[in-house]
Amino acid sequence: MTLTDATTVVALGPQWLDPQYIISSLGPWALLGVALILFAECGLLIGFFLPGDSLLFITGLAATTGLIETPLWGVCVVLVVAAFAGNVVGYGIGYKAGPAIFDKPNSKLFKRENVERTQKFFDKYGNRAIVLGRFVPIVRTFITVMAGVGRMDAKRFFTFSAIGAVLWAAGVTLLGAALGQFEFVKNNIELMLILVVVISLVPIAIEVLQARREKKLGASNLAEQTLDGANADAPTQQIRRPNP
Known about the structure:
The protein is mainly α. It has a domain of 167 residues. Helices cover 74% and strands 0% of the residues. It has ten helices and no strands. Helix 4 runs antiparallel to helix 10. The protein starts with a helix and ends in an 11-residue tail after the last helix. One of its GO terms (cellular component) is plasma membrane. Keywords: Cell membrane, Membrane, Transmembrane, Transmembrane helix. It comes from Actinomycetospora corticicola. Its main location: membrane. It is found in: Cell membrane.
């Protein structure tokens, strides 16, 4: 049974980025190919355009149809390891090469203040940023390198990177395997892939809204403190009595 028989997919981009085309073309090497793509997307800056979410979903479906002969649990293990290994390499790239790139005085994009801003971002949202960022295309590529550039604690980064790898790589693959059993899903894979991407953006949207709310609350508190301080410093008006 081919993946084409099980699904009806209209590519969301060039054919060579279509998950169905990738897996069908690689044949018996499909799992290795998917693992290498995940590795590149999670660790190499050039891999930011690769279809991680949709590829994982289709891989889960392919494992249940027999196109990928490796058992589903083995598929999940391989993909989790590939995603985590990509993060390790990406962190190393950022740690070693990042400072030299960002310290160039004539660079408009790679500025030192961006590194400092990133460091503050990780100090505040580091653990959540690593886990949630894994589910967002492009973000999962650059956030890994930026963690190395910002000198985020390696043990802390690798711990939460591993958690994110399990939740993302195994989670989306299992989701594809489970939902792929339904005829509606098989016949509307493109719609399901779009939903996967949209759902992956929800955690980040929540974080952004929460950050804006905290910023407004902080500005309101600062205004109140300023007003209270101004009132406290205001001179007390005394009533002068006429001299007898």
